[in-house]
From TrEMBL, chain A:
Pfam families: MMPL. The chain crosses the membrane at residues 247-266, 273-294, 300-321, 333-355, 361-380, 412-432, 638-657, 664-684, 690-710, 722-744, 750-773. It is a multi-pass membrane protein. This is Putative exporter. Its main location: membrane. It is found in: Cell membrane. Residues 177-401 form the Membrane transport protein MMPL domain. The lineage of its organism: Bacteria, Pseudomonadati, Pseudomonadota, Betaproteobacteria, Rhodocyclales. The keyword Cell membrane applies.
TrEMBL record, chain B:
Gene3D superfamilies: Lipoprotein localisation LolA/LolB/LppX. This is Outer membrane lipoprotein-sorting protein. It holds the Pfam family LolA_3. The lineage of its organism: Bacteria, Pseudomonadati, Pseudomonadota, Betaproteobacteria, Rhodocyclales. Keywords: Lipoprotein, Signal. CDD domains: LolA. SUPFAM superfamilies: Prokaryotic lipoproteins and lipoprotein localization factors. InterPro entries: LolA/LolB/LppX (IPR029046), OM_lipoprot_carrier_LolA-like (IPR004564). It comes from Rhodocyclus tenuis (Rhodospirillum tenue).
Length: 782, 194
């Protein structure tokens, strides 16, 4: 009778496991920012996502060369930059090399009549010419006169300066021995832009490795010199590495701890192996489920694999130690089933989170727990032989029993603790940290280097950004010009301090053609010039170069992307006009006006001006505020969802137990544990993050399992069975505390947050449940 | 014994005090620099005349100069176009009407530095700063001296061939820039208050 059932259970299990392994083998594991990006972003959030994916911030590597002397650092900078420019992984490399500066000068001077924003028919009329040439001559008497006179014969209307004025307000690093250097002169600086998306961490890692390798390869490098790098891409690569190593390190550590604990209790390798079976099955099912639903598995989700060890191992511990409930197997399995269901109810709320990381975690936990419970219920009993028994635990059970008995006298202390915790929390005010950075695994040293390198660069603040998308390059540039004319107006009103636009370095073909059309033809130009300079201290003949340049500009082919190659205009275009798979993304950074409070821009006025001009495809966003608000909405949503989760657990208990007082008796110790843990965290100065919240939810999910065993309806009939149950709960609890306690030591904040919440929380949940339930029994018995 | 010691100290002291007088006969760069260095601050008006080959007649501008030792020099042009140039330490700031302020570090722009530092270092009596960029030659007497600065770096020499600074005692009267292409600028300074 038993054999067919056994064969069926084992083959179903084996088949499903094989399927899971097959799915996992095909799974794409990611460890980038995607876990933090909203699933269904609003239009504004989408702009932020675009920024993080394609914006300059996301793809920038700031390279510093330290040590040695200035000349050697500059030589290495030039050599490294040359190497990187030849590497297709980089779309732009800048280090202030003379070659680039020459190209810049040449580009802006040679193409001034197509680039200058003021070129129109009026500008080249008699009076227009007269005014601008007059201005240029007046400028010669100023301090820059001796430098300006060099370009006056060919550019008497001052177009070159007008083009460059568009970039004023943007600081550049200082130069040292022909290459960019930090303000203290101790570092040479290079800016490299990675071509690939900021979300493609693999590509970023490869590019960063290429920089390192290229630096190592530079011949005759002074051994005292070294390379430092920072920027978002460097930090996200290093975060990924930290998370990966931490996750595997911690998983190994918790497995070792749990294995030791189980060996100590079971004294049997077979039982140990069986006990770990639900854990392994659960982890496999969890990963496979996430992979199937989300298409990929995030590294952080795997990190919680360790958390599942602590929970999934509990079921087998209950099974082995309580001998399936001894004389009341039905009651035992009912309790386990209710425990699993309440956990599922708790985690199910997370599935609706718009924070993809949380949704993955919810699905992973639910499928993992269901798999672990099913394996414990249907597979383990088939594999256990009748003679397989946990060694006699009567002695420790008796001790534990009497300990709890004595502790019941302390129940007033528990109430006091809970009350104190509630008071601490009520008085603490806002206990939540809403910064995304609170979750960042970036170390303080890395953060410091990043700040240093950024300030070395001259702190281009990329906080405010006007951005839009367009179907092709020309319409993107045309729209950028329309937006630019509104922004120019805002700039003269000092609502913004200035802005940048891809059209500054590459005007749309339409604008270029209009400018060409505004230039007077040879003889006409000569006649107008003669009229314009009449009475001025300059003869028209001296300006022959000007006439020649005008004529050349009038008939030349239009400027295109190829013309900017090798100049810093190329780097600018690459970061402001971004070609994507289906469209073009245009970013126009806005600068705060001089002397603005906290360097802030009143974005409402910018938006209003853009809307008034009918430019509704563009939005001006504050990246800082947008990031904070996304995270804030995650937190608010998570609070609501975990509230719903707790409510679902309560409803589940009510339905199963059909008694409000029993349901409350089960939840009171859990609520107490949650309050106490939170109060201790807050009192110790920790600002709670979304991950602490998840930790608390885990405490509730785990704790219901404990509390259910103490419920009067589930209590075993004999005293011996009660004691066995107590031991099993203690062992299960120790396994949980051990595996989560390990997480508490992680240097990745999110893992540490979970660890420090769940470890102590689970311990308190058990202690409170045991003491309060026992106290209740005593009161009943009396 | 103590008397002896005292008299010897006296002799040394007298010798030290007298030593400047010993070289009084030949007027040298050090003397001029010392004289200028005593001048801790000063205000003056200036007129500047630029003779450029591309223009048929010279351009004139005028304004005020203010110097505060050791390193603050302000040149405020009033005519024909208001413009303020402020040199303070390593920072050069230029303010022009209706234009964004330009601010740069001299260390990063040695050419600019050589231009403005010639004036500042002369006013400050800072021989070391002058000799960093120029070979310095002095002629005349304390009452009518002329300092000729010739850039020592070829990069500078391509722009400026010579700077002549003339004055009397601690007062600078004219500063003349001669450019490599023959263009010139001549600044005449009239002291307002000491």
């Amino acid at each position: 009778m038993k054999l067919p059932g056994r064969a069926l259970a084992l083959s179903v299990w084996a088949g499903l496991m094989l399927a899971c392994v097959w799915v996992i083998a095909q799974t794409h594991f990611v460890a980038d920012l995607s876990a933090f990006l909203p699933k269904a972003p609003t239009a504004r959030q989408q702009m932020l996502v675009d920024q993080l994916r394609d914006g300059a911030i996301a793809r920038l590597v700031i390279i510093g060369i330290e040590g040695g002397n200035a000349a050697e650092r500059a030589r290495l900078s030039l050599a490294l930059a040359e190497e990187l420019r030849a590497n297709p992984a980089f779309s732009a490399v800048q280090n202030g090399a003379a070659e680039t500066q020459d190209k810049d000068r040449k580009y802006f001077f040679d193409n001034r009549y197509l680039l200058s924003p003021v070129v129109d028919a009026e500008h080249f009329s008699d009076s227009g010419l007269r005014q601008s040439i007059g201005n240029s001559i007046a400028a010669l008497s100023g301090d820059a006169g001796l430098i300006l006179k060099a370009i006056l014969p060919r550019d008497p209307t001052g177009e070159t300066l007008r083009i460059l004025e568009q970039f004023s307000g943007e600081s550049q690093p200082r130069s040292q021995a022909g290459a960019w250097a930090s303000s203290d002169g101790k570092r040479a600086l290079i800016l490299a832009q990675i071509r690939d998306s900021g979300l493609n961490t693999d590509a970023q890692a490869a590019a960063i490795e290429a920089i390192r390798a290229a630096f190592e390869r530079i011949p005759e490098r002074d051994a005292a010199t070294r390379l430092v790098m920072s920027g978002t891409s460097v930090l996200s690569v290093s975060s990924r590495n930290t998370i990966e190593t931490e996750v595997s390190r911690l998983a190994v550590a918790s497995i070792i701890l749990v294995v030791c604990l189980l060996l100590l209790v079971y004294r049997s390798f077979r039982l140990l192996g069986l006990g770990l079976l639900p854990v392994a099955s659960g982890a496999a099912a969890g990963i496979a489920a996430v992979s199937l639903v989300f298409g990929h598995v995030h590294g952080l989700t795997l990190g919680f694999g360790t958390t599942l060890i602590g929970e999934a191992v509990d079921y087998s511990i209950y099974l082995f130690v309580q001998r399936a409930g001894g004389n009341n197997p039905d009651g035992f399995w009912r309790t386990i089933r209710l425990g699993v269901l309440t956990s599922i109810a708790g985690f199910a709320a997370l599935l609706w989170s718009s924070f993809p990381g949380l949704a993955q975690l919810g699905l992973y936990s639910i499928s993992g727990l269901v798999a672990a419970a099913l394996v414990t219920r249907y597979v383990l009993p088939q594999l256990m032989s009748a003679d397989m028994a946990v060694r006699d635990l009567t002695r420790p059970a008796r001790i534990l029993d009497s300990l709890i008995d004595r502790a019941t006298g302390l129940r007033w202390l528990i109430y006091l603790l809970i009350a104190a915790a509630a008071i601490v929390l009520l008085r603490a005010g806002d206990i939540w940290n809403r910064q995304l950075s609170a979750l960042s695994p970036v170390s303080a040293a890395e953060q410091q280097l990043d700040t240093e390198l950024r300030s070395d660069l001259g702190g281009t603040n990329l906080r405010y950004m006007a951005s839009f998308t367009a179907s092709d390059e020309q319409s993107a540039l045309v729209y950028a010009e329309r937006v630019g004319s509104v922004l120019r107006e805002l700039s003269t009103q000092q609502i913004i301090g200035g802005f940048n636009s891809p059209a500054f370095v590459l005007p749309s073909s339409a604008a270029q053609r209009a400018r060409q059309a505004a230039l007077p033809a040879g003889p006409e130009a000569r006649a107008r010039l003669a009229g314009a300079v009449a009475g001025m201290p300059i003869k028209a003949e001296r300006l022959d170069g000007f006439i020649g340049d005008l004529e050349a500009a009038r008939t030349r082919p239009l400027l295109g992307r190829a013309d900017v190659k090798g100049s810093s205009a190329e780097a600018l275009l690459d970061s402001l006009l971004i070609k994507r798979e289906h469209d073009y993304l245009v970013l126009m950074p806005l600068r705060a006006p001089d002397g603005a409070h906290d360097e802030e821009i009143d974005l409402r006025r910018v938006d209003a001006a853009l809307a008034a001009a009918g430019l509704d495809a563009v939005a001006a966003i504050d990246l800082l505020e947008e990031t904070t608000s996304i995270f804030d909405s995650y937190l608010r949503e998570a609070l609501i969802l975990s509230g719903l989760g707790c409510l679902a657990i309560l409803v589940m208990l009510l339905l199963a137990l059909r008694s409000l007082s029993r349901a409350l008796r089960i939840t009171l110790p859990l609520a107490g544990a949650v309050l106490c843990v939170t109060a201790v965290l807050v009192a110790s100065g920790t600002q709670l993050t979304i991950l602490h919240l998840i930790g608390l939810l885990l405490v509730v999910a785990l704790g219901t399992n404990y509390a259910l065993f103490f419920d009067s309806g589930a209590q075993p009939e004999t005293r011996g069975d009660v004691r066995q149950m107590l031991v099993s709960l203690l062992v299960a609890n120790l396994a949980t505390v051990a595996s989560f306690g390990v997480l508490g030591f992680s240097k990745v904040p999110i893992l540490a947050a979970i660890g420090t919440t769940v470890g102590p929380g689970a311990l308190l949940a058990l202690a409170f449940s045991a003491i309060l339930a026992r106290a209740h029994d005593h009161a009943h018995a009396r | 014994m103590p008397d002896r010691l005292l008299s010897r100290t006296l002799v040394v002291l007298v010798l030290v005090l007298l030593s400047p007088l010993a070289s009084a006969g030949s007027w040298g760069v050090n003397d001029l620099m010392q004289l200028l260095a005593q001048q801790k601050s000063g205000r003056a008006t200036f007129t500047e005349k630029k003779t450029l080959s591309i223009l048929d007649r010279p351009l004139e501008s005028s304004g005020e100069l203010a110097f505060t030792a050791p390193d603050r020099l302000e040149k405020r042009t009033l005519k024909p176009k208001p413009e303020t140039l402020l040199l303070e330490g390593d920072r050069l700031t230029i303010d022009q009407a209706e234009k964004r302020r330009i601010s740069l570090s001299l260390q990063d722009h040695p050419e600019v530095s050589a231009f403005v530092d010639s004036i500042r270092a002369t006013l400050a009596g800072d021989r070391a700063a002058l000799e960093k960029f120029y070979t310095v030659e002095l002629s005349g007497s304390a009452d009518k001296w002329q300092l000729v600065l010739v850039p020592s770096q070829s990069r500078m020499l391509a722009v400026i061939s010579r700077i002549r600074i003339a004055g009397a005692q601690a007062t600078v009267r004219t500063i003349e820039f001669e450019q490599a292409d023959g263009d010139r600028s001549e600044m005449t300074i009239t002291s307002v208050a000491k």
